[in-house]
Amino acid sequence: MVSKSIEAMQGLSFSQFGLPLKWIGLTTFCGDSASPAQANDVSICRHYGVRMKNIMRQHLLSFAALALSACSLDNQPPELTPSCPVFLFILGVAQDAGKPQIGNPDDPAWADASLRRLSTSIALIDRRGDTPKRWLFEATPDIKEQLHRLNAAAPAERTLDLGGVFLTHAHMGHYAGLMMFGHEAAGAQNIQVFAMPRMNDYLTANGPWDQLLRKHNIFIAIMHDGEAEQLAGDIAVTPFLVPHRQEYSEVAGFRIEGPEKSAIFIPDIDSWEDWDAEGTRIEDKIAEADIALLDATFFANGEIPGRDMSGFPHPLVSHSMDRFEDLPVAEKKKVWFIHMNHTNPLLNPNAPERAQVQKAGFNIAEEGDKICL
User: Taking the model in full, what pTM does it have?
Assistant: First the structure.
């Protein structure tokens, strides 16, 4: 078991907790890694080798839980380097309705705010230049909180300064947040929304979304499968189609290219095997990227009592792990599981399933993670 003691806190900022705190004097012993694949990763935890002084004990006890959580960052891959100029910032990791979910009063997250998670969203941030450039992926029902977090991580001149909002598809957790740009809320002006052709048709032909266009709160840039959107000289986003329920629009994933690394973002897909049948292997997509943020909606069959989940339109995490079992260690380390249903045990920080995933060499996305590109 990792032993940790607190004595000095050396100017660490715990923005991942949403707190603008500067801690002075942290002494910690971070000896274990979550998996062999993550051994020797760069960590913010430093070993100063000093015992806790009694005079500081009372002042630090209230912060102990936060400090221990911070030390767990020693298990994170080296991509999590907050000093890099271009990076992905994880704004939400839960399925469309977040955690806790409506109609589930027994979820402990109602009583314990530390267990709450927002709908899946990521931001692309370019800190080069005088003012950060920011792009949002997904407009979720939690967009208010997510933009607040984005503005804390990468302040812009105006709260709604966005280079654009990329939408994967027309399921409620991925576009419903657009309503917050309307005149009843932010009253935004001409925010660019990147959408695939059917997604564009849906937004322009149906209220209340068409009102956002009429009032110039947003305008739509139509994307096409496999065609890159060049955001800067060395930053591009390319959509690609994936098989998933298409009641109102097609469903896209994204390849996000930065100056040094690239990522793929696939929050929703029916199954890897359905994609195989269309001529695309997820293993090839992983091989072509440095980071793969992949659908982890459900962990395993039996997660929802009384229902056979074998036909659910998402690849179970347990199945993904089995499928990727023979990948090289370096390829496994690229995988970050995201978009977890409120029932998924990976959202529980103490669940044995988390240790199982990490021991197998994979990563679990956390809100506040910063992944260098």
Answer: 0.76
